[in-house]
Amino acid sequence: MTPTEAAEPLLPVKEPPRLPKPNLGKLHAKPFPLTTYPLPPLIPHNPISILHIAFTYIYQFIAPPSSHPKAPYQAYFSPETRSVHVTDEVAIRALWESGFFGKGSLSRSEPSWLDRERRRRGLLANETSEEVTRQRREDRKRFKKERARKEREAIEEKLKEEKRSKQNSGTATPTARARYEGVNGGPVESLAESIESLIVQEPPDHPTPPAIVITGAGDILEEDPSTATLNQVPNSSTALAHQDTGIEAAPVQNLEHLQLTPSEAFFLAYGLGVLQILDPTTNTPLRVSTLFALFRQHSYFPPRQIPTLEPDDPFFLQYATYHHFRSLGWVVRPGIKFAVDWLLYLRGPVFSHAEFAVIVLPAYRHSYWSGSEALRRETERRSRKTWSWLHCVNRVQSQVRKSLVLVYVEVPPPSALPPYSAEDDAPVDIGLLLKAYKVRELTLKRWIPNRERD
Amino acid sequence: MADIDEDSTIRAPDSTDTDLSDEPQDFRFLSALSQTSTSHPSLPRRGEKDFEHHGTISQTSTLEASQQAMHNALSVPRTHNPKNNIVGLYDPTNGTTIIENPKGPMTKTMGRGDIQGRLNLLPEEALYLIERGTMDLRWRSEELEGIPLSLQAAYAHLLGDQGLTLELYTVYTSLKRIGYVVQRGPAWYSEDYNKDFIKPRQLERDSKPLGLFARFYNSLFDTPHPDPPPSGPLVAPGLYRSYNSIYRLLSLISTHDPSLPPPTGNPSALPLPWAIPPPPPIPASAAASTRGNQPIRTISGNLLHLHRTSVLLSLTQERKVFRC
């Protein structure tokens, strides 16, 4: 017994700190990263409220507070991933908390990599959503394996029983049954019982986080216990080979950034004006008109040149829908998880599930698009979708209980858009460009005559 | 957190997941009720499903029992009750089916009556009644007067008449069997296609308008916001009292108003909820007809019912007063 091991039982095990659960309503109170300054409420029978209002009004008149943050948040455009990266911690929190913009690059949605890393190192005890999901998936896999095993056992038992009874009665076996003798079989009626018994089983406890020791300042952790204890002895004399040794010496560096889709980034830059996007090579801020062209170019792969851009660029359609729903108050997030373009949340993903799944489709109803045969064929090719696609998409959405919304974006003819110049000095009226598009929404639902009687 | 459970798929089977009509029925439950009665009291229920061959005696015997029950059910002789029998007359020269003395609940919702009390039936209705056994169709022509039509003759004459195809007929019969009253829709006769514009339900567009004093009070402190610069932010930095003004500044994209009737004169206009471009092409079998999609009115033949809603438009108002 080494002296370290003898000293172990005398020291209490320190639990990692558990942060209190945040009040989600307060945390996500603002729909955009802008602050509003409402006047205090008027209470007619209370003269002090009138004074309060007058004072606040005069104060705001003299020194008007700004709704925007002092300096716009900085982000980088990454042409390799065709997205915009935000690396500043304050900006990440602000953009996620007010409006649910973006996605953590190493997380499911909310940038929680740092929390997970801290938890892995034993510095935090709060569970993140990724861990809960992983746990649930493991439970499900285990349950399915158990169920399959029980089924197989029941079938084998039944086969044995029948073989025994056949031997007892001494009848000849028909050839069909003899052919399938080797295959596992089973009784139908007892399967249900075996599955019942499985469901009654208690789910196993959550496994505790593995014992991890920090071997050096800022290093990636090693889980080999032998080397860990060897390094442990000279570092500290009091600690255990358990959670909280050397925490203060090794702050975890956040390796995650927030990823914004082009539509989200453009909305923040052009619509709200809170984001400034920098060119990654030159580190200079990009102007909104340049950004617009850049996103349109990068909506194709490989990126197209400016003169070849068209009014039905994918970025145009996606952004028109995004802007439309954001201006109506929905929280719009990318819907790649459910094979759609956008998901609409009422307040945010932390409050409720997405109500609607939006698919963006171009519509070419303007007479320009049916002018020539070539145009007609081209628009036909671009807007045609097969019935099997629609069935698939509808099936996916009904499985996850969302309403499918088809959004048709009316594409204006190229003449309706103001001419686009390649140079940056001519200011482009993006508002005019966007006003030329019209949006039409349709919900889709499969009608099953057997089920619904209305 | 709602975010956690978004990919959870363990839940009770939902009515939208499975389509009962896709699954074959277990006829054992039918035979359990009655073997020799001529009336079929109800549809057989679903039994338990086996996914693979086990090689057990119990499984094969269950299978044989089900198949036997199905054979028994199908081999019941079909009889017609002379009391409820209706005689229909088919005139091959102009392809009309007439019932002289209509009686029975079926004829109440089918066909078109005339002054003399006779009932003119559409071909699909006539076929349906023959299949069901309520009607006995006879010839009405010079040499074949009074002779009953065989089923083959009925099908041969009535299908292809007045635009009826086998696919349309199949849809018609399945819906009628479920219990719907099915009539021809306007898409059958393409000239009337635009006439049937169904105005969508009026949803509550505007929240309760503010009272006089509230509006006056708000107008006292309204600061007018200048027009946004062409490539500048739509919401310029400044003093905003509520998010209403921010949303108002952001609204840029126009939307289509579904309560307006479609513009006339544009043949490619989409007037109706089930004629949306790009129309999801109905599978090749039904699309074979030259007039394109000809859905029977109540239901489209492809199991899709498209609604046009102004739900999202109405949420504008709701959201704009949400944050103050």
Short description:
The complex is a heterodimer of chains A (454) and B (324). Chain A has 454 residues and is of the alpha+beta class. Chain A contains 15 helices and ten strands.
H/E topology pattern of chain B: HHEEEEHEHHHHEHEH
Low-confidence stretches of chain B: 4-16, 35-41, 265-324
Beta-strand share of residues of chain B: 5-15%
**What structural category arises from helix and sheet content of chain A?**
alpha+beta
Unreliable stretches covering 5 or more consecutive residues of chain A: 177-189, 205-249
Biased composition (Polar residues) (chain B): 32-41
Biased composition (Basic and acidic residues) (chain B): 45-55
Domain tRNA-splicing endonuclease subunit Sen54 N-terminal (chain B): 71-139
Protein name (chain B): tRNA-splicing endonuclease subunit Sen54 N-terminal domain-containing protein
Description:
The complex is a heterodimer of chains A (454) and B (324). With 454 residues, chain A is of the alpha+beta class. Among the domains of chain A are: 112-255, no CATH class; 287-452, Trna Endonuclease, Chain: A, domain 1 (3-Layer(aba) Sandwich), CATH 3.40.1350.10. Helices cover 39% and strands 11% of the residues of chain A. In chain A, strands 3-4-2-1-5 form a five-stranded mixed beta sheet. In chain A, strands 6-7-8-9-10 form a five-stranded mixed beta sheet, with helices on both faces. Chain A starts with a helix and ends in an 8-residue tail after the last strand. The relative contact order of chain A is 0.10. The model of chain A is unreliable at 177-189 and 205-249 (pLDDT under 50). Chain B has a five-stranded mixed beta sheet, with helices on one face. In chain B, strand 3 (112-113) and strand 4 (119-121) form a beta hairpin. In chain B, helix 3 runs antiparallel to helix 4. Chain B folds into three domains: 82-160, tRNA intron endonuclease, N-terminal domain (MutS, DNA mismatch repair protein, domain I, 3-Layer(aba) Sandwich), CATH 3.40.1170; 165-203 and 259-324, no CATH class; 211-257, no CATH class. Helices cover 27% and strands 8% of the residues of chain B. Chain B has helices spanning 28-33, 57-74, 123-132, 151-158, 166-178, 212-220, 243-250, 284-287, 311-320; strands at 86-91, 96-99, 112-113, 119-121, 135-139, 254-255, 304-307. Chain B is elongated and about 90 Å long. The chains are: A alpha+beta (454), B alpha+beta (324). Chains A and B meet through helix 6, helix 8, helix 10, helix 11 and helix 12 of A and helix 2, helix 5, helix 7, strand 6 and strand 7 of B. Chain B: Residues 32-41 have a biased composition (Polar residues). Chain B: This is tRNA-splicing endonuclease subunit Sen54 N-terminal domain-containing protein. Chain B: Belongs to the SEN54 family. Chain B: Residues 45-55 have a biased composition (Basic and acidic residues).
